[in-house]
Amino acid sequence: VGIGTASPDEALEVSGNIKLGAESNTTSSLLFERSAATRCTQYVDSSNLFHINAAGQTLFDINGTEAMRIDSSGNVGIGTTSPNEPLTIETAGAGLTSTINLRNTESSDNTRGGTIVYNVNNGSTQTNAVFLQGFKTGNTSGGIFTVSTANSSWSAPTERMRIDSSGNVGI
């Protein structure tokens, strides 16, 4: 069947936009089903959040090559087909490294480039934490790296160690 085309190449081919609408208390969804056990539903909820509800794993391909997956336990894998942690990043190839780039494009002095926080959350309250932070200093290519700690008040972490752009370590 062709809609908007005189010569469809598939069982259903639509040339143009497709709109799925819903009554005020219902949700329209797009259902992909190979069998009752292998189905995927996509929809937008009343809060305008996009949902992908898959029976197994959700894969994201770029040009036919897997770029990322979310497995059935919620683990995310980038560069791997079997993530074994909440986030697993792998790179294959000689001389390659798995890199996470936390970047702030602000150009002013003493700008925080990125922060990684290790903390415990008891479900309602942030508790003790360790902060790893990089800062730009001045108009040079150098910067500083700090390790700080904080208790339940994250507003003023205490710096415990600093490595400056010359490699000097202060504790």
What do these coordinates show?
- There is one protein chain.
- With 171 residues, the protein is an all-beta fold.
- Helices cover 0% and strands 45% of the residues.
- The chain contains no helices and 14 strands.
- The strands form four sheets. Strands 10-11-12-13-14 form a five-stranded antiparallel beta sheet, with no helix packed on it. It has a four-stranded mixed beta sheet with strand order 6-7-8-9, with no helix packed on it. The chain has a three-stranded antiparallel beta sheet with strand order 3-4-5, with no helix packed on it.
- It is elongated and about 70 Å long.
- It starts with a strand and ends with a strand.
- 3% of the residues are buried.
Q: Outline, from the CA principal axes?
A: elongated
Mean pLDDT reading: 81
Strand percentage: over 45%
CA radius of gyration is 24 Å
> Roughly how many Å apart are the termini?
72 Å
For the largest sheet, list the strands in their spatial order: 10-11-12-13-14
**Can you tell me the residue ranges where pLDDT is under 50 for at least 5 consecutive residues?**
none
Note the total helix count: 0
The major β-sheet equals:
5 strands, antiparallel
Helix content: under 10%
Element-by-element helix/strand order? EEEEEEEEEEEEEE
* SSE-based structural type: mainly beta
